[in-house]
Design goal:
By secondary structure, this protein is α+β, with helices and mostly antiparallel strands. It contains six helices and 19 strands. A hairpin with a 4-residue loop joins strand 12 and strand 13.
Length: 325
Amino acid sequence: MKLLKKIVTRLNGLHYPQEYLCFAWESFQHPLQVFLAVNGKIIKDITHSHLFTGYSPLIVTLYSPANNNQELPADIDIVYTPQPLQPNDHFEKKDAIALLSLKMIRKQPAGGIVISYYEGVKGEHQFLSSFHQYMIGLNNRLYNKKTGNIFLHDNLYKQVQIAYSVPRNISLITVCKDSLYNLFPTDLHGPVNEQYYVCSLRHEGKACKQVEAAGRIVISQVHCDAYKMIYSLGKNHMQELKQKNELPFGESVSSFFHLPLPQPVLFYRELELMESFDHGIHKLLLFKIVSGKLVKDDSATLAHIHNVYATWRHNKGLPGNYLLR
């Protein structure tokens, strides 16, 4: 069995030894562009306006004005390409390095906008050859069905690889209840606009229940140099609240909630919970943004991408500034 695993690993075509690669977001060069498409026609550039908010199933969050003529349709495609595309352009699959097809699962009115949540239906990409993709899928089926691990079936695994071809910011959430605290990382989140913020947590996790009970959090963008420590805090999703001195907080606190900020904080937002719903393993939480503040002006925000896309970049000779754990 160990020999088979070595053979499958050797034939997967991946350049890097780990699945997710960290880096400083601001120094990431030549990212892919992401476009919303309907019936084969480009609607708009959503590179910086879509949120990746779930992986089991895949969930993408978009928003549009609360106007019947501009609301998003039930079925959409998301096109990932290194090439610029214009609204009303017709695209073919060969024009996309990756393509996600999605269906709407929920609309959520919020102020003057409608937030739309989409579930992935199918994903296709050309980051690696068909053979290498098959070997990665084989490795997934043979070795990723582990206790405590969320298994991603064949195409869902491919959809997730595509979603992580866009740099995803890893932030830290501070939550407090009855003078006890938790601090844990998340990359399934982002601002909808200047007023609203969406974050996704596993609804069976203790961290999710703590956030719901508290009703308010601080979410902090952090310095990439702390990537090892931040990954190590992943276990806190399933941990009880702790004393403040048991967690890597600094001396600073947030402006309104007076919650402690993590040591490597660069920028933070204070968020107040408005509503939530469950889908798959996730609870999608909609927050109102109470405040946002820059703590340190340093262009080194922690983010990560998937190895499949990182390997494509390597094969294309594109620069990588990855921090290997």
